[in-house]
């Protein structure tokens, strides 16, 4: 009897685990350096010499986002052989990494189109960095849901995942514009992005909560939308309709629960005018909690 039999271990599964873990560590390490390479700076210099907290927060968000995507890549039945497992794990993870980077680019150019995110992060703006990190994590949560929904390794699979990704980016833009409109009405037309650029941390925390809750609500889609490999239009329309319905339901529930939990507190004054990070954190927790409960019930 060998060591594996003694402890009831499966040598094949342990080897699969070692392969997946090795690929994950390599990709997570790569993501740290990609953060600097993408804006032509040294990540070591920003993190350890300049002590740029904003760059660190942004990098942390990118690494966490990739880990979430990798989690979706390794979830499920192990491949029958090591080569297939390595190819599948690498392909899904690298595709996820590319989508995360593309998602951040779209978020910068479309959602946060009034500010220069990278420049502000290099200047140490932690508020913008928090929004950037949470946008990356929100994108990763959606990518993970799409990977688990269309679990396969064909061209149709990647088309389906990319379709869900595009819908998610559209919803992040819609959410941002809606939150901007509400903010401007309560603040004499001051743009929300301008407030973030000025370092409004409470606003960044609250907005991040909305992005993460919306992303979490996407998980329910995989339980309701049937994956059809060649029904490209049907798949993307299903994701679009479902995401709009979830955003509306989530928004109504969050508004109602906030009025109950934070009764007799003027949230607009506390968060937007007095920069109350504590209240903003409670708002963020409520948003995420409602999304988790709602998706859990729908699953």
Question: Percent of residues in helical segments?
Answer: over 70%
How many structural domains can be distinguished in the coordinates? 1
Question: Count of helical segments?
Answer: 14
Total strand segments:
0
Portion in strands = under 5%
Averaged pLDDT, please?
86
- H/E series, N to C? HHHHHHHHHHHHHH
Structural class by sheet pairing and helices: mainly alpha
Radius of gyration: 21 Å
- Terminal CA distance: 43 Å
Quick one: overall form? Answer: globular
Q: Biggest sheet: strands, sense, closure?
A: none
Uncertain segments of ≥5 residues (pLDDT<50)? none
Describe the structure.
- By secondary structure, the chain is mainly alpha-helical.
- The protein has helices at 3-6, 11-37, 43-49, 53-74, 82-111, 117-122, 126-149, 155-186, 192-197, 201-217, 221-224, 232-261, 267-273, 277-298.
- The protein has one domain (3-298).
- The N and C termini lie far apart (43 Å).
- 40% of the residues are buried.
Task: Write the SSE topology.
Blueprint: H1 3-6, H2 11-37, H3 43-49, H4 53-74, H5 82-111, H6 117-122, H7 126-149, H8 155-186, H9 192-197, H10 201-217, H11 221-224, H12 232-261, H13 267-273, H14 277-298
Short key terms for the protein model shown above:
single chain; 299 residues; mainly alpha; 80% helix
Quick summary:
The protein has one domain (3-298). It is 80% helix and 0% strand. The protein contains 14 helices and no strands.
